[in-house]
Design a protein that fits this description.
It is a single chain. The chain is about 55% helix and about 15% strand. By secondary structure, the protein is an alpha/beta fold. The chain starts with a strand and ends with a helix.
Length: about 350
């Protein structure tokens, strides 16, 4: 067999007696198709990182690389990359479930022209995405683990209500939006809304100093005792007012009051879910451009490439190098490189050895 650049010539011989032909085999790691691992990785990243349509990828491959990559080949390369990422992404999903502090969020998606939901879990420099046809608790358990451990930071969506409020932190950015909405419901609603916003402003002024290191946590906890009492009092007053929407919202929040101030007592817990919302924003922009996925296989590719790109970005690792290495590993019949934070991955390898 001779190798000329990226071309391989396989010597073939035919037996004169039995007429059976025998041809040399490609070495391990050499693709059997027309495209190598690097180009395959570029195609996948153009979708998952840069949100390009298949048509745009086809044109870009021709213009930039002078490569004739059809629309069907783009889909095939995406699916091959999806398989290359299967095991590393599964490892990250289990790792995320075990972390002490977790952020979760969900947003609408479309799969095969049917309503679906894209979920995200962010924890300790990893992000995990799932696309499922449901927004219910069963998917939340799949994402977070059947037996929840740690602290969950999320909005008030009922799909998370199986997690005890004592180990939850509600997103105050969402709560403040509710308080601002109270202003649209007459003088009483406006008074309650403005009072809760003023308390929230005081709380975040103290919290900013804690994060800046200019206020000790013990002092912050002392400052928050009267603020916490005021917030609960205003919520209680709102729950008894004669404005149905304000009263109903206040009652809903009070049912979860144990999850309002977890960040005050536990180090590392944030009062907002901005981390998960930032992670899901890229997927929302992709959805607006591609209108979702056509099949389950398409959804698996989206999950895996989003998980891979977001996790690598959080760890400041090179996305193209990693995806190329994963594609090369699959060609050799080996598992892809780990997506875990590198110190953790080295420790796991040492234990396995």
């Amino acid at each position: 067999m001779l190798a000329m650049g990226h071309d391989y010539l396989l010597h073939s011989l035919t037996c004169k007696t039995c007429k059976i032909s025998t041809r040399a085999e490609l070495p391990a790691g050499v693709p059997t198709g027309n495209f190598g691992a690097r180009l395959q990785a570029i195609v996948a990243i153009c979708s998952g990182e840069y949100r390009m349509s298949k048509r745009m990828i086809e044109e870009m491959m021709s213009d930039v690389f002078d490569a004739d990559v059809s629309l069907g080949s783009v889909s095939n390369l995406e699916q091959a990359t999806s398989e290359a990422l299967r095991e590393p992404v599964a490892e990250v999903a289990e790792y995320a479930k075990a972390q002490p502090i977790k952020h979760a969020d969900e947003t609408g998606w479309t799969e095969g022209k049917k309503r679906a939901w894209l979920w995200v879990l962010v924890a300790a420099n990893v992000a995990v995405f799932l696309i499922r046809p449901s927004r219910g608790a069963a998917v939340a358990k799949e994402l977070l683990g059947e037996v929840f451990t740690g602290i969950l930071i999320s909005d008030r969506w009922s799909g998370y209500n199986w997690v005890p409020t004592s180990v939850r932190q509600l997103c105050w950015a969402h709560l403040i939006r509710h308080f601002k909405g109270f202003e649209d419901h007459g003088p009483h609603g406006q008074r309650i809304g403005l009072a809760l916003q003023a308390c929230s402003d005081t709380m975040f002024a103290h919290w900013t100093r804690v994060r800046d290191g200019t206020l000790q946590r013990s002092t912050f906890q002392q400052y928050m005792r009267p603020v916490r009492a005021q917030i609960l009092n205003f919520l209680q007053e709102g729950s008894l007012c004669n404005v149905p929407k304000v009263a109903g919202r206040c009652r809903e929040i009070l049912k979860l009051q144990d999850a309002l101030f977890t960040f005050i007592r536990i180090v590392g817990v944030e009062p907002t879910n901005n981390i998960a919302e930032r992670a899901v924003r890229h997927a929302v922009l992709w959805r607006k451009a591609c209108f979702g996925t056509d099949s389950e296989n398409g959804s698996r590719f989206v999950e895996r490439i989003l998980t891979t790109v977001a996790t690598l970005r959080m760890q400041k690792r090179n996305v193209l190098d990693y995806v190329t290495a994963a594609c090369e590993a699959r060609l050799r019949g080996e598992p892809g490189p780990s997506l875990l934070p590198q110190a953790q991955a080295v420790e796991s390898d040492a234990i396995a050895a």
